[in-house]
Amino acid sequence: MKALKRMDPLSHLFLFYFYSSIIISIFFLLIITVFRRTRRLSCKCDTCRCFVTGGWTSSFPSLPDWYTHLLRRSPTSTIQIHVLRNTVTASPENVEYMLKTNFSNYPKGRPHSVILGDLLGRGIFVVDGHHWRFQRKLASLELGSLSVRSFALDVLSSEIRVRLLPLFSHLAGDGSPADLQDLFRRFAFDNICRFSFGVDPVCLRKGLPVSEFAEAFDLASRLSAERALEPAPVVWKLKRALNLGSEKRLKEALDKINVLAETIIRERRKVGFSARKDLLSRFMASITDEKYLRDIVISFLLAGRDTVASAITVFFLLVAQNPDVESKIREESDRVMGQEDQAQLPTFDQLKDLHYLHGALHEALRLYPPVQIDSKYADVDDVLPDGTWIRKGDKVSFHPYAMGRMPQIWGPDCLEFRPERWLDKDGIFCPVNLFKYPVFQAGFRVCLGKEMALVTMKLVCLSIVRSFDVRLVGPVGPPRFVPGLSATLKGGLRAVVRRREWCGGRYTRIR
Q1: Which one, 195, 234, 260, 445, has the greatest CB density within 10 A?
Q2: What's the rounded Cα separation, in Å, for the pair 194 and 204?
Q3: Structural domains in the chain?
């Protein structure tokens, strides 16, 4: 110590850089080791041993398609990627075991909450135990109330009539291609912000203004999801500690989200919230912790915006490729609602009679679920119903995207878009076991907003299909998705829109 004190400043600087270089070298050696290890992923199943070197994109459109390929080859519909301690299954029996039978052994887990914790905090999608039970009970009471459902329907109807349909009319008059995915994301963001916060970001207004909050929310969602793609958690954690790269941008986006959310909550408390109908105001009656309120409402914002926008986007992708389905939806709506007023929105009772539309939406979600894979972490050693051994701490994932493509679940035509598979001989919609269709989760974590989401999707899709023709632009190949918390089409969904008009007892397309 005395010798160190006698050293001149230049020597101290030399020692600092010397030890720093050693630490940095060790860090990069660790990164290279992990990277090399994860470039060679092994899948063990009863009949195949698959090795992927350098990437799957040369043979498959996307990572979910690669998983689907492996799961279809496995006789148990389960694979284990041992180097990642990750088990992936497309077996309905395994899904039921994880989400219901042995639910307590498969929580979301700490790794999940660490990755998404900066964005979602203690929100319902990243917590277990007491916090999960409390939020689920609170959300169940609120989302199930007649007043909340009525308020949600009023907001939705207003957004469709005042913004969505006029914007589509403008696109039809202009004739230029537009990115429908962007429009549906804007629509869903306006709708869920009005419902959740009682705040209107007006993203869908004419001119499509940029919302700082929406941009920050999109960036934070994407960068949070990309943490899971890092070769090792230490990579993004170190970048966060040093405030570098993607973690610096994530922090800046989160700061914007937090400032807006906290401002809304404080202002709402000042002016009073008891008379307001939005979700935030109703939650404020039960929760005084402003940070906890922020986490809960941001979680609902994420679920209500991204999943709905994704579902509507893939619906129009598939319907545009299947004009016979589009015709049947129009025929059904004409029979239920009449033909003359195509801008009319269906009543709640009429919605219940639109069985073919309901089947078409479920079929679109079967092929392209908004959440393509969902993961849990095992609390203790276990064995799945198909005999797969699970170690404590293992990641165990079920794969809705792959499950929608399994012949043993949906038959040999599982890759076809066929809404009729959801209807009985009388044309009545027939639901299936949610454990073979976990698009809305299942068991104890089944989505509480499922019915409200389906109503939103049906109203939006029907209002556009009745009034407009939507035709895709350019070559249409297998969809590719951007890595994220929900399925987003890479490059968007470019299409041209043409208005349909009632003329001479039938609809014609106005060019």
Answers
A1: 195
A2: 13
A3: 42-510 (1.10.630.10)
pLDDT by residue (tens digit) across 431-443? 999 999 999 999 9
The Cα–Cα gap between 378 and 98 comes to 9
CA angle 317, 159, 187 (to 5 degrees): 40
Mean pLDDT computed over 250-260: 93
Give, to the nearest 10 degrees, the angle between helix 245-271 and helix 110-120. Answer: 60
Contact 459, 471 (CB under 8 A): no
The pLDDT of 120-140, averaged and rounded, is 90
Q: Do the beta carbons of residue 317 and residue 311 sit within 8 Å?
A: no
Interatomic CA distance for residues 160 and 312, integer angstroms:
13
Is 45 annotated as ligand-binding?
no
**Looking only at Cα atoms, what is the longest distance across the chain?**
101
- Report percent pLDDT > 90 for the chain: 56
Phi–psi pair at 85, nearest 5 degrees: 50, 50
pLDDT at site 363: 98
Full 3-state SS string of 367-399:
HCCCCCCEEEECCCCEECCCCCEECCCCEEEEC
Eight-class DSSP state of 444: G
Question: What is residue 204's DSSP assignment?
Answer: T
Show the tokens assigned to 422.
């959801």
Q: Output the DSSP codes for 5-34.
A: HHS-HHHHHHHHHHHHHHHHHHHHHHHHHH
pLDDT tens sequence across 232-241:
788 899 999 9
- The whole-angstrom separation of Cα 342 and Cα 338 is 8
Let me know: does 302 contact 216? Beta carbons within 8 Å: no
Kindly report the backbone phi and psi dihedral angles of residue 43, in degrees, each rounded to the nearest multiple of 5, phi listed first.
-125, 120
Per-residue pLDDT tens for 170-227?
999 988 999 999 999 999 999 999 998 888 999 998 788 888 888 999 999 999 988 8
What is the dihedral sign for C-alpha 269, 270, 274, 279? negative
- Residue 500 pLDDT more than 90? no
Can you give the pTM of this predicted structure?
A: 0.86
